[in-house]
């Protein structure tokens, strides 16, 4: 370790105590902060509440030069600036919402070297006027928050983020730290490639939040189910997520009429109302916020005791981020997802409306993963963590519905799995689940006849399951890693794990009840 680094680490520890009042780093923070202080571009992946801000705020304080913090949301930036100012750290924002006086004042503070941390939206920082100002300043560090927005493979792609690699080129001497709470392996690759971060400079804190109880229930009488769930947590703070603004308004009103202290929150409300309602929630004047996904980013309320998903989320990243807002104080919190096939149909309908073929495929893939989680009978935590690339967890959590519900025995679906897998193999590992299911069920679709797949030994050997049941099975096979889905065209391929099941060396245990529920559910979805 170099002397300068050692002294920087020492000043970082000192600042941790003196500025932030914390006794020690969290286990995941230390290596990240050391790396950044050492001038190594770094990718930090931590769950919501994991303590990402400190990973750039602290180097920002220790470095002599300026630290740029790129963040997508103005409200989030303002929050952080306020918090830093309370800690006597010189921080400011540049954005178009400032008065010209404030803007000039902030510029002066930046140019004079007084400001330590400067918060900007990606589109602001890339303006040529801003770049030329910053070129005259010693930019020591570039922190890119919500870095998953850089990747088209993520669930929140933002085109402005795509340009951020230019920043890295403009300020080649500055060290880059990218941070995100939600990044699948594919998205992580994208971030590293675009921001010149090497393989060994990626740090991933565990995504496990053991204090969250995770449950999925069939959506039958959602309002009754919601009330029963809320009533388990009287006078405690909770968030209810709905898919649409009208759904939010409707549910909030119903709850109010039934005597609950609930308020709505969505992007259709004016900003005054939004900040008022958010404030009331944070300060416990209301118990419940009924919201669209617009609610939550940057809200630091530690004692949210439950999160209810009234509708099916569109993807696992969003779902995990939303339930992550519960129990940030480390105490137990409950998360319930109401899962109905009608919601699946609605999401599919949205996807069908998408113009961009690539976006369409991605959205379909994301929905497939979400369904696999909802339909799974395995430990939910294992399925979730596997999705985020944590594959080293083998023990069931005993803190989710599937772990605790002993009645729901998984059935032996080995023979079905074998049929499905061998049909993938025989059709050349190029086709999607729907096609495979059609072959198994002996469909006379033109494409199947053209490909002469009606001549295969796996043709028409699977009429005992409905098409939907085969689709469910395929998601289970993906979730358990026996097959992979090619990202562009959705074709299925076998993985090494498939071999054991195909050869009869390992059983495939999964749900049959749920599959038949799929079959009998009345839904337009196909
Ligand atoms: P994230 O941005 O990852 O969601 P934050 O940076 O908002 O998380 O941090 C979450 C909470 O953890 C904050 O209240 C923060 O003050 C606290 N925190 C962060 N680092 C530490 C630490 N080393 N010791 C104690 N508390 C910490
Ligand atoms: Zn579990």
Structural class: alpha/beta
Which blocks of ≥5 consecutive residues have pLDDT under 50? 513-526
Shape: globular
Q: Give the overall average pLDDT.
A: 90
Beta-strand proportion: 5-15%
Q: Kindly report the spatial arrangement of strands forming the biggest sheet.
A: 3-4-2-5-6-1-7
- Can you give the helix content as a percent range? 40-55%
What's the number of helices?
Answer: 24
Q: How is the biggest beta sheet arranged?
A: 7 strands, parallel
Number of E-type strands: 17
| Ligands, deduplicated | adenosine-5'-diphosphate, zinc ion
What is the rounded Rg? 25 Å
Distance between termini?
59 Å
Characteristics of this structure?
binds zinc ion, disordered C terminus, single chain, 526 residues, 24 helices, alpha/beta, 17 strands, 7-stranded parallel beta sheet
Characterise the protein shown here:
Helix 19 packs across helix 20 and helix 22 crosses helix 24. Helix 13 links the parallel strand 10 and strand 11. The strands form 4 sheets. This protein has a 7-stranded parallel sheet with strand order 3-4-2-5-6-1-7, sandwiched between helices. Strands 8-13-12-9-11-10 form a 6-stranded parallel sheet, with helices on both faces. A two-stranded antiparallel sheet has the order 14-17. The chain is an alpha/beta fold and 526 residues long. It is globular and about 75 Å long. The longest helix is centred in the last third of the chain and has 19 residues. The chain is built from 24 helices and 17 strands. The chain starts with a helix and ends in a 6-residue tail after the last helix. The chain is 44% helix and 14% strand. The C terminus is likely disordered. Adenosine-5'-diphosphate binds next to helix 3. The site of adenosine-5'-diphosphate (ADP) has 13 residues, from helix 3.
